Amino acid sequence: MSGVAWHYVLKFIITGDAAVGKSSLLVRLTDQRFLANPDPTLGVEFGSKLITIPEENKVVKLQLGNKVDLCADADEGSDASRDQPSVTLKKAREVSTDEAELWAKEEGLLFVEASAKSGVNVEAAFERATRDILEKIRKGVFDDERDTHGDGSAVSIML
Ligand SMILES: Nc1nc2c(ncn2[C@@H]2O[C@H](COP(=O)(O)OP(=O)(O)OP(=O)(O)O)[C@@H](O)[C@H]2O)c(=O)[nH]1
Ligand SMILES: [Mg+2]
């Protein structure tokens, strides 16, 4: 990995209903802190985070955006938005873990319960998603687009 800042850039959209904790999750991941009194987000917030996947010998830069999902129901979202890698926040205690796990399985989604407040599972959730994406790249599920830096050391993934 010497001399390589990152091997891949992956773009994540953190989406969900208003006030479900999107900004708090983003700030916990990028700044390792819990926002005391977050203001409602107007527009979109951005952040980035480097993640190392040791078994792949890869450094991945996550570029994160956070926006309110204006669709009242995720099931009513467009096919285009459903094809994006995203983290959909649910108010976890409104549904049981079992029910949420089952729904995620039926939808073919990764499921991780995390807390922006305590930090539990936040980085792990994004690492799991990153590993899943790298595996899909390896298997040819996603196309990648080699960069034009000339040395083949970095790749941008267009999803
Ligand atoms: N207990 C607990 N509260 C949380 C957690 N994450 C966020 N909150 C609280 O949930 C409320 C909303 O958090 P935000 O991060 O502003 O939510 P948001 O989805 O970005 O909200 P909008 O930008 O208005 O759509 C705040 O009072 C947070 O303190 C968490 O992991 N645990
Ligand atoms: Mg917000």
UniProtKB/TrEMBL annotation:
Q: What is this protein called?
A: Uncharacterized protein
Write down the SMART domains for this protein, in alphabetical order: RAB (SM00175), RAS (SM00173), RHO (SM00174)
Task: Give this protein's Gene Ontology molecular function annotations.
Answer: GTP binding; GTPase activity
Q: Write one Pfam family the protein is assigned to.
A: Ras
Gene3D superfamilies per record: P-loop containing nucleotide triphosphate hydrolases (3.40.50.300)
Highest taxon of the lineage: Eukaryota
Q: Kindly list the organism's lineage.
A: Eukaryota, Fungi, Dikarya, Basidiomycota, Agaricomycotina
> What InterPro entries does the database record attribute to this sequence?
P-loop_NTPase (IPR027417), Rab_GTPases_membrane_traffic (IPR050209), Small_GTPase (IPR001806)
